[in-house]
Amino acid sequence: MVVMALIFGYPVYLNVRFSLMDLTGFDGVFSGLRNYRILFEDQAFYHSLLHNVMLLTLVPVLVFLCIIFAVLLFERIRGWRLYRTVIFLPTVLSITVIGITFSVIFQGNGALNEMLRGLGLRALALDWLGDRTLALLTVMFVIIWREMGFGTVLFLARLASISEEMFDAALLDGAGWWARLWYIIIPELAIIIEFYTVIMVITMLSWVFNYVFVMTQGGPGYSTYVMELYIYNEAFKHNRLGVAAAAAVVLLLITVVLMVVSLRQRRKVVAEYA
Q1: What are the tens digits of pLDDT across the range 46-77?
Q2: pTM for the structure as a whole
Q3: Which of helix, strand or coil describes residue 159?
Q4: Main-chain dihedrals φ then ψ at residue 120, nearest 5 degrees
């Protein structure tokens, strides 16, 4: 515990300290809440915070998709081994590689638009990464494509440990596919769903930098700005280390609050199904 406190606690302490200072490099003078005032007057900060909130809406979407695909694979549909590999493969790929690949695919003259034009669907050949409305949605699609594999395999592993007698009894009672999903599979997956939800909340708040940095650099304008990119730009492009530290403290507080809520909910779930 002491080692963990030193490894994680001391950098957090330094970050909070830096957020209260007017920094030049690692030296500076105490400035109180000045950096926070600058932060909350910056429109780019609100754009980045809003986009992280929008990314959090992907969590229930991912949970739903992972459950559906895990159940289909569990039922051994034809070619399920191939599908399992295809779904999980993006998880083991580097986010940087994925970002560069999809940047090429979604270019104005990229593979997707050329294919649509070739099929006579020129009206659907859009500026996927250059349009303010579409850019964030495109990044969200790529995030879903990569992150879905981990949850699917996680849920599939839990389903494999469920007694088949339970499913046989449900079939004898005349339970249909949706009834088995709602009354057997989801309750059995409850604890794993809570775990995956926590992981995805952390991901959407603090692990999407690579996607945005490689694919859009936060543009066009602020349409794909996220908190991590905001912190990076403030620290290394605008040389406002104190403001970047203040933004990091805000992100930490938001993450801690959501983690506490998630853990309390998980305790209720564990108590209910224990």
Answers
A1: 999 999 999 999 999 999 999 999 999 998 88
A2: 0.89
A3: helix
A4: 80, 15
